[in-house]
Write a structure and sequence with these properties.
The structure is a homodimer of 161-residue chains. Chain A is mainly beta and 161 residues long. Chain A has a single domain, classed as Elongation Factor Tu (Ef-tu), domain 3 (Beta Barrel), CATH 2.40.30.70. Helices cover 2% and strands 29% of the residues of chain A. The first copy, chain A, has one helix and eight strands, in the order ββββββββα. The radius of gyration of chain A is 16 Å and the shape is globular. The two termini of chain A are 23 Å apart. The mean pLDDT of chain A is 89. Chains A and B meet through β3, β5, β6, β8 and α1 of A and β3, β5, β6, β8 and α1 of B.
């Protein structure tokens, strides 16, 4: 399956170091989705939603290891139990607040990705579909509160493999 | 960007007609993620989570229209304000309950996809990252309650374009 970006995400983060690791650590950060003009019509009705789901490419990450030490832990965990960017298919997922739209520009708040990240898809965030009553969050049980203050470092920057 | 499946999703749904359109309409439906054995190590620690996020390929859908009539509405809406499967990058997203794992087999409940759907990624579902206090759900405002009973039809089956 071949993926072609529908646009790019502009954010204030030009460097992985110091970037929030999750939207919960970037609630006030504003960004702009610059959608390729040929897709503009598909953005209609989007501004009715307060939150949207972004799928994007972790474009600075290549290769992967099946066991990784996540930002929020000190021991190695199975890759698929983490949100680490270096994955077999390096697609990221963030839920952000939608603040407005002007033609092919979509304005968002609470964005935690690098500037110029290739955007793959936008979906409406719908509580009935996307909110679950969770009973366990594994190794993240204690760590998830810390996600709001933890910043990124360079551990997931592109490596020679 | 080239995507290669990490496995397939087995479900009771061999036909789009009559399939639930969202996990909220398939809460009791059980399925199995059959992960390619070379990725098995990356599944460690996953069973600590009660819910996981699946990214998968809408493999029966090709092409797209920028304005679509969603299952839950009677008028055309901008594609990116819908969860319709025919998209520029036909990637689907579902949050499901994790019920167990045996080596490279991951057992899930509340699955709303076709049998043999190619699986692209698994991520842990973490309320701190993935739950937002939503204030507006646009055209879905009235319709989302209906999602639990609405079934699919053939409108998004592969079309010649």
């Amino acid at each position: 399956m071949q993926i072609s970006p529908i646009g790019v995400i502009n954010t204030p983060f030009n460097d992985l170091k110091g970037m929030p690791i999750q939207p919960s650590g970037a609630l006030e950060i504003e960004g702009t989705l610059v959608i390729h003009p040929e897709y503009e019509q598909g953005l209609r009705d989007l501004e009715g939603f307060s939150h949207i789901i972004l799928l994007y490419q972790f474009h600075q990450s290549t290769g992967y290891d099946l066991m990784v030490t996540p930002f929020l832990d000190t021991q190695k965990r199975g890759l698929f139990s983490t949100r680490a960017p270096r994955r077999p298919n390096s697609i990221g997922l963030s839920i952000v607040e939608l603040t407005g739209r002007d033609k092919n520009l979509v304005f968002v708040r609470g964005i935690d990705v690098l500037n110029n990240t290739p955007l793959i898809d936008i979906k409406p965030y719908v509580p009935k579909f996307d909110v679950r009553t969770v009973t366990a969050t594994g190794w993240l049980e204690k760590a998830q509160k810390q996600a709001a203050t933890q910043k990124s470092d360079d551990r997931f920057i592109e490596k020679q493999r």
